[in-house]
Amino acid sequence: MKTAFITGATSGIGKATAILLGKSGYRIIACGRRQDRLDELKGELAAFTEVYTLSFDVREKDAVFKAIDSLPNDWRNIDLLVNNAGNAHGLASIQNGSIDDWDAMIDINVKGLLYVSKAIIPNMIERNTGHIINIGSIAGREVYPNGNVYCASKYAVDAINNGMRIDLNEYNIRVSQIAPGLVETEFSLIRFKGDADKSAGVYEGYDALKPEDLADLILFMATRPAHVNLADVLILPTAQANATTVKKH
Ligand code: NDP
Ligand code: 8X3
């Protein structure tokens, strides 16, 4: 049975992915800071698969390596890494943006992804196999008003994804990126610092993607024959044409 390591499995895309992969024959290493949610997820999947939970903050370099080093021997061979943990913090012009928000986005979306990858890649290299799916964003393809640093963090994911694919090419490791448009998750609640009305407004008047749509895509990509790599997929709601064009009912 294959083992999938999923960051940000406590909510949204990561949680839906853990559930779908867990019901589709994968063992799951589920990560996030909220242990209560990881425990709930483990309970929800108990009838389908084994789940190992790891609670750590991807910003904390030492905690990332300690958590991954703590995996028992029979959980160390990771077949699929889904680098999903991340968020936008704030939506503000460059002149009004908060430095704490900038730090959070660079530290989580970019450095956190690098730390987790750095801890897991050596085992993939040793085994000459593996698949890494990096969750980028349409924000990594187009900069939109007030998106500045979030967009920069996702442009960085795009560059890291392409660099990983080149560097890991000789080790038979697939590297893929998914760049979603608007997905209805807790993403906007975090971006708008708990403002539920503002967050709900982002998804009003059209059908946004659901986290399950992303889980479907991740399962599809992960289960292609070994010689096939869906290297880079932009996935949008039908109502969304680009980062700033959304047709409302
Ligand atoms: P959610 O807010 O629903 O989920 C974010 C997940 O990331 C949570 O599980 C959270 O876990 C985890 N996370 C956040 N910060 C940290 C941290 N410091 N350490 C460890 N884990 C962390 O959002 P989504 O599911 O929408 O987001 C998942 C990914 O998809 C992100 O990379 C996001 O940028 C990307 N994306 C989202 C889009 C959208 O419209 N929703 C569109 C394009 C891309 P916990 O808080 O428990 O630590
Ligand atoms: C999340 C989608 O458009 O809010 O990456 O940046 S968007």
From TrEMBL:
<dbReference type="Pfam" id="PF00106">
    <property type="entry name" value="adh_short"/>
</dbReference>
<dbReference type="InterPro" id="IPR002347">
    <property type="entry name" value="SDR_fam"/>
</dbReference>
<protein>
    <submittedName>
        <fullName>Short-chain alcohol dehydrogenase</fullName>
    </submittedName>
</protein>
<dbReference type="InterPro" id="IPR036291">
    <property type="entry name" value="NAD(P)-bd_dom_sf"/>
</dbReference>
<dbReference type="GO" id="GO:0016616">
    <property type="term" value="F:oxidoreductase activity, acting on the CH-OH group of donors, NAD or NADP as acceptor"/>
</dbReference>
<keyword id="KW-0560">Oxidoreductase</keyword>
<dbReference type="InterPro" id="IPR020904">
    <property type="entry name" value="Sc_DH/Rdtase_CS"/>
</dbReference>
<comment type="similarity">
    <text>Belongs to the short-chain dehydrogenases/reductases (SDR) family.</text>
</comment>
